[in-house]
Recover the amino acids of this structure.
DNA sequence: TTGATTATTGACCGATCGGTTCCTAATCTA
DNA sequence: TAGATTAGGAACCGATCGGTCAATAATCAA
């Protein structure tokens, strides 16, 4: 019986992701969002209820995308897969020109201010580290990777390097440097 | 001929650092600062002129403290020194309970919004990475560290891990995990 | 002690913040 | 086509934002 929504929700969420990624949650005003999504205030509040709920929806979408992307990359052979993860991370740093990663940015900005975001962020990290750990375990079974350290610890360490890259990616660093860092991180798994 | 300032500037700046570290620049209101510094609005604006200038002053102070702390730690033998840097980083993560690092937090929050902060932040990173590189070079000369990769690249990689730890430290991670990550990072220099 | 100078205080400023409300427009069912 | 329902648009809301200012208090030199 209703009137249809005139804007595309997925498209709007992508715009919201980019905006929040750029300016942060607190740095993004509702009016910024209206410009970015190309809609009016009433529509935004009809659709999501508040700036915070829109953010949470966008963040959840981003988490899912990241998790899906990681798992896709990890379907290859472990070593190649992990190299690809870093290359992808670096290319995001460079291509997105300082936009960084919404997950990392949000965790740094908001984990201490918003318990729910901290919880969601922790969950996301668990999934990401878990997926990396599985790949490393495969690499360990294949004899490609060292076995003197548990896969979970290696995965945690690798993920920390990725977070470091993405955080440092907020100011622009030459691509070669970033790639060298990624290469070293994966190398440190070998033996 | 003048009336004296009633509050201690150094003490006030320390309070400002903690507040900005906790809540971020945008998340800290002037009224938050007044509470934290225990002064009135007029005094704040007399002393620093604006919230932004107070922030820049606090950030500069923090940078100097970090740089001095790092250089002090690096006066030991290279390997022990770098281990100590990580232990110090981890203990900060744990002791400060999610406060993280003002340098990292500010870079992630503001590098894309404020060119001057990006510039200052980049300078700080250069100093930090440079100091680590010098220590690694010493370790390389002593035969403690691998020489197949330039010290600057190793230092960059190590610093990225530190940044990753500090960023992840915004949500609380068990100390043991953090320590394991730090140990692995320094180990990867050896050979 | 007086006068010049600076710090502190608290009221005040316009602008913007996130959010609400109400009216109209569009779309479906019956 | 009538009526129910939802979306879009714009004016409007109180609260808070960062920042200013005039009056008062304190301190020094002369």
């Amino acid at each position: 019986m209703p009137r249809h929504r005139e804007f595309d929700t997925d498209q709007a969420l992508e715009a919201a992701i980019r905006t929040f990624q750029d300016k942060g949650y607190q740095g993004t005003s509702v009016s910024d969002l209206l410009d970015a999504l190309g809609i009016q205030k009433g529509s935004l509040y009809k659709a999501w209820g508040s700036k915070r709920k829109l953010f949470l929806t966008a963040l959840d979408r981003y988490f899912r995308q990241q998790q899906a992307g990681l798992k896709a990359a990890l379907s290859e052979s472990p070593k190649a897969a992990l190299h690809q993860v870093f290359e992808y991370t670096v290319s995001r740093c460079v291509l997105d020109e300082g936009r960084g990663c919404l997950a990392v940015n949000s965790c740094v900005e908001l984990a201490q201010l918003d318990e729910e975001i901290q919880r969601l962020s922790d969950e996301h990290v668990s999934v990401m580290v878990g997926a990396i750990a599985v790949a490393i375990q495969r690499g360990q079974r294949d004899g490609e990777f060292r076995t003197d350290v548990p896969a979970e610890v290696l995965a945690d360490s690798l993920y920390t390097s990725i977070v470091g890259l993405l955080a440092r990616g907020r100011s622009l660093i030459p691509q070669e440097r970033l790639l060298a860092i990624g290469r070293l991180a994966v190398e440190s798994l070998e033996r």
